[in-house]
Automatic annotation (TrEMBL), chain A:
Residues 1-234 form the ABC transporter domain. InterPro entries: AAA+_ATPase, ABC_transporter-like_ATP-bd, ABC_transporter-like_CS, ABC_Transporter_VariousFunc, P-loop_NTPase. The lineage of its organism: Bacteria, Bacillati, Bacillota, Bacilli, Bacillales. GO terms for molecular function: ATP binding; ATP hydrolysis activity. SUPFAM superfamilies: P-loop containing nucleoside triphosphate hydrolases. Signal peptide: none annotated. The keyword Isomerase does not apply. Keywords: ATP-binding, Nucleotide-binding, Transport. PANTHER family: ABC TRANSPORTER ATP-BINDING COMPONENT, ABC TRANSPORTER ATP-BINDING PROTEIN ALBC-RELATED. This is Fe(3+) dicitrate transport ATP-binding protein. The keyword Transport applies. It holds the Pfam family ABC_tran. Gene3D superfamilies: P-loop containing nucleotide triphosphate hydrolases.
UniProtKB/TrEMBL annotation, chain B:
This is HTH-type transcriptional repressor YtrA. CDD domains: WHTH_GntR. Residues 13-81 form the HTH gntR-type domain. One of its GO terms (molecular function) is DNA-binding transcription factor activity. Signal peptide: none annotated. Keywords: DNA-binding, Transcription, Transcription regulation. Pfam families: GntR. InterPro entries: Tscrpt_reg_HTH_GntR, WH-like_DNA-bd_sf, WH_DNA-bd_sf.
Length: 311, 129
C-alpha cells in the first residue's frame, strides 16, 4: 500500500556555519509516529527547522501536505503544524499558562480551549502561575498541551523529553498514544531515549552526518536485525565460515572460545543456512542501542565503499 | 483490556505472525469469547511496544479468516464461531505444534522409536502427576 507523505524533501541541502546537511530525500509517512535518531550534530534540529521553514534550504525543494512552498510558510500550512522544542520561548516567561494559551490561540482557527484546560488539569500544571515559576516538567507539559490544543495535522517534537522526570515522561507517552488514537495526525519526534523508539515509533529514521540513512518500519527493523551466536566447536570450520557468505551480515565477531557472535539484518537466511548444515545457533533480540549502532556502522561502511554492500 | 500476548524477541519469526498465532489461539481456546471488544490498534500496539502497522495487519488477517469483525466507530470484536469449527481448528493447531516438535527432534537425530517412547513417557507423566 502506498502511504501518503505529510512532508517531502527532494535533494535538499542546507549549510549553517561549519555544518552541511544533505542531500536529503525524505517522505514523512502520514498517520504514523516517526522517531528520528542520530548523534548530536547529525542535523536533526536543522531538519526540523527546515520543516518549519524557520530556515530555508540552499538547494532542493519541499512540499507540505502535498503543497510546495518557498520562503516563509503560508499561514494555511503553518496552522496545521505544531512544534514542541527542547527550549521554551523566553517571551512567554512572564505569562501564565492561560495567558500564553490565549495569545497562541489567536493564530490557530482549530484551537481547542476545553481540551487545553483538561490537559493542564490532568498534567497538574498550574494555570495561573507565571511560566518561569513552574517546574521544567510542568513547563514542558504546558508546551505539549498547547501544541495538542491547536489540533495539528503534524506534530513536530525536538527532544521533548530531555529533562523530564519519569512521571512527566509517562504522561507525555500516554498522551501521545491517546492523541494518535483519537485524532488523524502524524508525529515526528527526535530523541536519544531508546524507550521512546520502543514505545512510540511506527517508523524509525536514522540520521548521521547530515544525511538520512534510512527510514524503516520499526517492527521490520527489529525482526530482521538479530544477534546470532554460533557455539564453539559445533561444526567444521569451513562450514561455519561458509555461513559468513549469508546475505545481511553486518558484523562477524569470532570470540576467543571459538564461538562467533554475528549481527545480521537477515536473521531468517542465517537460521536456515545453519539448519541445513546442522549447526546449532542461538538467536537473540538486539537492544535498540546496539541495533542503531550497527545500523549506523553499516551506513558508514556503505558511504566509504558503496560496493561493500551486498544486495 | 489487556490481551495476554507475548512477543518473543529472540525469534526471527515476524512479529505480526507471532501476535496473530497467539490471538487466534486465545479465540480458539475460548479465552477470548464471542463479542469481546479488542483494544484499539494504537492501544494494543502500545501494550506490545510494536508498531500500529503490525497490529493493523493482525486485525486485518484475522478478520479475513473470520475470527474478528470491525464495526466502524465501535471497534474490533471477536466473532461468533461454530463449535464444530473450533474443534477442527483446535486439532489443526495441535497437529502443527506436534509436527514442529517432530521436525526439530529429527533434525537432532532422533528416530521414530525414540520419539514414540519419549512422547508416551511425557504424556504419562503429565496426566498422572
Amino acid at each position: 500500500m502506498q502511504e501518503q507523505s505529510v512532508i517531502s524533501l527532494h535533494e535538499v541541502y542546507k549549510t549553517r556555519g561549519q555544518h552541511t546537511i544533505g542531500p536529503i530525500n525524505l517522505e514523512l509517512p502520514q498517520g504514523y509516529i516517526t522517531v528520528l535518531v542520530g548523534e548530536n550534530g547529525a542535523g536533526k534540529s536543522t531538519l526540523l527547522n527546515l520543516m518549519m521553514q524557520t530556515i530555508y534550504p540552499d538547494q532542493g525543494w519541499m512540499t507540505w501536505f502535498g503543497q510546495p512552498a518557498k520562503g516563509e510558510l503560508p499561514l494555511s500550512i503553518r496552522q496545521r503544524i505544531a512544534y514542541v522544542s527542547e527550549h521554551s520561548s523566553i517571551e512567554e516567561n512572564r505569562m501564565t499558562a492561560l495567558d500564553a494559551a490565549h495569545f497562541r490561540s489567536q493564530w490557530y482557527p482549530k484551537w481547542n480551549q476545553k481540551r487545553f484546560e483538561q490537559m493542564l488539569t490532568e498534567f497538574q500544571v498550574p494555570s495561573t502561575t507565571k511560566l518561569n515559576k513552574v517546574s521544567k516538567g510542568q513547563r514542558q507539559k504546558f508546551e505539549l498541551a498547547a501544541a495538542i490544543a491547536t489540533s495539528p495535522d503534524l506534530l513536530l517534537m525536538d527532544e521533548p523529553s530531555s529533562g523530564l522526570d519519569p512521571f512527566a515522561w509517562k504522561d507525555m507517552i500516554r498522551t501521545l498514544h491517546q492523541l494518535m488514537d483519537t485524532d488523524d495526525l502524524s508525529i515526528l519526534i527526535t530523541t536519544h531515549r531508546m524507550e521512546e523508539v520502543e514505545r512510540l515509533a511506527d517508523y524509525v529514521m536514522l540520521m548521521n552526518d547530515g544525511m538520512i540513512y534510512g527510514i524503516q518500519e520499526k517492527d521490520t527493523l527489529y525482526q530482521t536485525w538479530k544477534e546470532i551466536w554460533i557455539n564453539a566447536g559445533v561444526g567444521d570450520a569451513d562450514v561455519i565460515h561458509s555461513l559468513h557468505e549469508c546475505d545481511g551480515i553486518v558484523a562477524w565477531e569470532a570470540q576467543s572460545d571459538l564461538s562467533v557472535r554475528v549481527i545480521t539484518t537477515n536473521a531468517i537466511e542465517l537460521e536456515e543456512a545453519a539448519a541445513e548444515n546442522n549447526i546449532p545457533i542461538q538467536t537473540r533480540g538486539l537492544e535498540w542501542e546496539d541495533l542503531l549502532y550497527y545500523w549506523r556502522q553499516s551506513a558508514w561502511q556503505y558511504k566509504r565503499d558503496p560496493s561493500s554492500m551486498k544486495k | 483490556m489487556k490481551i495476554p500476548v507475548q512477543i518473543n524477541e529472540d525469534s526471527a519469526e515476524p512479529l505480526y505472525r507471532q501476535v496473530e498465532n497467539q490471538l487466534r489461539s486465545l479465540i480458539i481456546g475460548g479465552k477470548l469469547q464471542e463479542g469481546t471488544l479488542l483494544p484499539s490498534i494504537r492501544e494494543f500496539a502500545a501494550d506490545l511496544k510494536c508498531s500500529v502497522i503490525t497490529i493493523r495487519r493482525v486485525y486485518q488477517d484475522l478478520e479475513n479468516e473470520g475470527w474478528l469483525r470491525t464495526r466502524q466507530g465501535t471497534g474490533t470484536f471477536v466473532t461468533k464461531v461454530e463449535q464444530g469449527q473450533l474443534t477442527q481448528m483446535s486439532e489443526e493447531n495441535v497437529r502443527k505444534i506436534l509436527n514442529e516438535a517432530i521436525q526439530k527432534s529429527t533434525a537432532l537425530g532422533w528416530d521414530e522409536q525414540q520419539l514414540q517412547q519419549l512422547f508416551a513417557e511425557l504424556i504419562h507423566q503429565h496426566f498422572t502427576t
